[in-house]
Batch of 4 targets.
Target 1
Amino acid sequence: MSSESSPTEGHFRSIGIETYRENFKTDDHTLVDVREPEEWVRGHVPGAVHIPMNSIPERYGEIPLDKPVVVVCAHGQRSMMVSQYLLGIGFPEVYNLEEGTHGWMMRRLPLDR
């Protein structure tokens, strides 16, 4: 099985950074960065909205249900947990961005600050 996992009911999909950049345009999805505020200010993927992982249960209503949701953290662990949570509460299309912002930075891709 490749790292680009196929949709399975009850499971989020993981996507690589290249796939994300090729297939998701600015306003056709919501990119949610679940890192802590001190991580966010050091740089984040352009277009991301910041909702720290521990705030997701109170703030998930800020995420539109009618667009795919891509979740990112530093390395992909927290975003996996949040992706599973969002699926569990009814978000129909959720992706975990593999390698997180660390992978983004290692590729020398642009960051917003």
Target 2
Amino acid sequence: MTSPLQGYTLLNTRAIHQAAPLTKYLEKHGGNVVEIPLISMKKTSDPKIKEAIKMIHTYDYIVFTSTNSISFFLEILKEQGLSKREICNMKFAVVGKSTLRSLNKEGFDADIIPPIFDAEHLASALKTELSAGEKVLYPKSDLARDVLTRELHKVGIQIDDPSVYETVFRIDDKAKLNELIKKNLIHIIIFTSPSTVHSFFSQVDKEVVMNNVDKLHFAVIGSVTSRALKDEGIEEMIIPKEFTTEALVHAIMKHIK
């Protein structure tokens, strides 16, 4: 029996430390995967996170909207002399299943996970659970949207949102990336964040991409990533109903069937 993705070459643009699970899942279904990480992450030196950790037990919730925010937050927590035991009785909210899995791997569970995996629905869930005057710690990326902060402020919920990591465009494989696009060696390009979209278009010859757009499929996770791609002039794309890598791969297979 022919595998669904057999004969297709897919570009995985995720950061190096996150690329493997998606690649394995695509290869499991017969895809030929090229990994070109377009972003990398590094720990930030934002002094606000250190101040927040000093008063960690004054927060009613700790909120995570990415797997990276969890790992960097816990790294900084340890650097400040605190162990995970210090926060084991605190309440957590996460944006989706991937973030929940990362939290579970660290020994914690989430008290809030929204029905739709985005910041807007997470904010709604938190507003239902919390009252004015209560406090939220939201460790985030330097590029995170302000939706959560803005929505909670509207209803009087205190929120501290220090950056725990920075997202950096990775240009190590720029020449390889352009060669693959120019020679039409890629059939499907996968973007899992707005940052991967912005990094991609900052490195490629956009005219070449647009001239070959009828030969390319674009697949994205999430409404924010799809908006970033639309801003670059790409209207046709594959978007799963559920914002997970598993759902994305199944949406790709359904699209090309």
Target 3
Amino acid sequence: MWRALFEAAIRFRDTAPWQWMYDSDLFGVQNPYTREIGYCCVMGNLGQMFALAVYLGSEGLQSYLKIATGEASYRRDPVEVLTTQKCLVASFEDRAELSREDRDLIKRLGLKIRGRKAWPLFRSYQPGYHPWYLSAEEVRFLPLPLNQALEVALRFRDDPALFIPPQEQSKEAVFLVRVPQKKRNRWVWEDAWLSPAPLPTPQRVIPSLDELWLNRLKKQCRQGQTAWELDYFFLPNPVQEEKKRPYYPYALLCIDHRSGFIMATEILPPWALEEKLAPTFLDLVERSSLLPRELLVQRQEVKELLAPVASRLGVSIKMVQSLKTLNAARKHLLAFLG
């Protein structure tokens, strides 16, 4: 499987479709094994990064659109961009950019590669995780979009109107998608104009309430006079446990809205946020023996996760557009961490 991937990547590199394509020329390739659509983006027209990025499914497409529209920006918040991507990337780098594992793999395959920006590098991006080596399923899939992207790119060079949908679908949000059909034990690829699948509805894990704990806090803690700001964000330094894929931990921050005093900072792995958010808030209430006048949040997710415990404690939750005090503290913390 690895040899097929490298051969597809080298063909793509040698053709250099970034010479006539932009990263806004988006098209899809359907995974024949899962039927998920990978949305392909050819990068390199500006001469900086030469790559094919394959954004996986509607969630991947959304992460691409956030960057394309400026909602997410590498300059403004590189950590947020890195930790929200859902894609596979085949890029072409200098040899020094490859890890020992990457170089050893090329050596085992007997490939001879020379030159700057010529060495294939493959990485998997998943929300909350550091870019990592491909899984077996990803190695099997990635040659397909590389090969189909090359075919689409050559057609686009001869027909710049290739990505314009037919008249009857011109008002719909559709993409040109290469769709595989199994014929005589091989895949035959055809064009289709398809709308992205709806984004999956988030399934919140609302932990059960500890009634005794809540009743004790309600009796023992006095009502404060100020609001608290509460939010979370990714920290820039990944954490690796044993040989597992490194992840970016969340920092959960709670700040007194009036004074700017940091009430609490907790570090959580991304998969534990939903389970730990409410108990962490209750721990803070218990340690301070104080209930906030209200909670200010800037994410619907935080409001939904804290609503049950806040309601039992008689604390209102208010959604605001921006937590100015907390965001300033966040900026200082991230600058300190480098």
Target 4
Amino acid sequence: MKKDILADTGVFFKYFNGDHNAKELIEKKKNEIFTLELNLAELIYLVGRKFGLETSLLRENILRNSFTVVLITLVLGFY
């Protein structure tokens, strides 16, 4: 059964650090992963501090091309 999952920054941070549970969740073909633009911004900041801007932007690009990124709008905020 297909699952829609809204992933927070922590899931992606754990995934890129080799966490088995995060890897299983993200790589399972039956899951459709959604994340917020805000989560990507937070990930860029956290990864950039630890590994540098180049690594940070590379990881952001991987996520942006692999998952559905949702923009927060005023309308979305009321649902």
